[in-house]
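#onboarding

Welcome to the new folks! Below is a worked example of what a typical request in this channel looks like: someone posts a single protein sequence, and someone else replies with the predicted structure as tokens. Don't worry about understanding the tokens yet, we'll cover that in week two.

Example request:
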Amino acid sequence: MKETDSFFVDQICPVCKTSLHTKVFSINHRQSQVLDMLGATVKEPYADIVKCKECQHNYMTPIISDEKLTHYYSKINSEFYANPKPEVGNINEKEYADYTKLIQTKCKTGKVLEIGCGKGYLLKTLQDNGFECYGVEPSPFAAGFAKETLNLQVENCFLHESSFFNMKFDVVVMIDVVEHISNMQRFMQQVSSVLKPGAIIFIGTGNIDSFNARFAGSNWGYFVSWEHVSFFNLKSMRALLTNFNYTDIEIRKTSLQHRPVKNTVEFIKNVAKKAINPFVKRKFYHGICYDHMIVMAKHKG
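Example response:
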């Protein structure tokens, strides 16, 4: 990598900040859209997935520098929104209804902040169920949709830049966010600072110890993007939350979009990809299925 100094930096464990790790495998990011947008000349660099010897957290190193990624998220747009498709509505309606019911088991009503709220469909579901909702989203496209189409209180920025940063919330929600965070210590301090004592944190992310992730190995779908730098399992998630004074930690293994049939079909496709990959130069990524987890915990304050 000739551009290591300007684009890539080595990472230590985002959860416990130790540098002792074992290499799990190397991955080749064949989707170069992020690098294209940032003007990098390196198109298919390798990175390592390593496991921390202390907390068992898995993470990628090297990663794109925070400076470059911050510019990418807020000024360019995430690759997930780079080519907006015609709006088809809330395709995750069942999943978000289930999330709302789960949150209501811990908090019936109150102020909710969603970090990385995307186009705002989960936030809208929560609002329709009686919560006072706020959101922050770095993507100009997604934040604009949430504000203009769904009429939500969403700001196009990062949490620490938001006017909501001086408020206190009963619930903070983060779906498909923590895998993007390299400086987890700073981020979790910011999250904790906006929570009331006894407030609830609600996290959704991939589970690198799931059967599908283990089956896929270096071709797991979560490894497809340079945006994903941190890969949790149940143990490292508990370690992170315990370190930041959270209690009553509950972790539930879930399927993508809460659609068992769709997930089963996706896994059958993954079996076929596993059989084909040894014979093709450009490997197939395994689709995401049955490898999510939902986490709820209480902030002691």
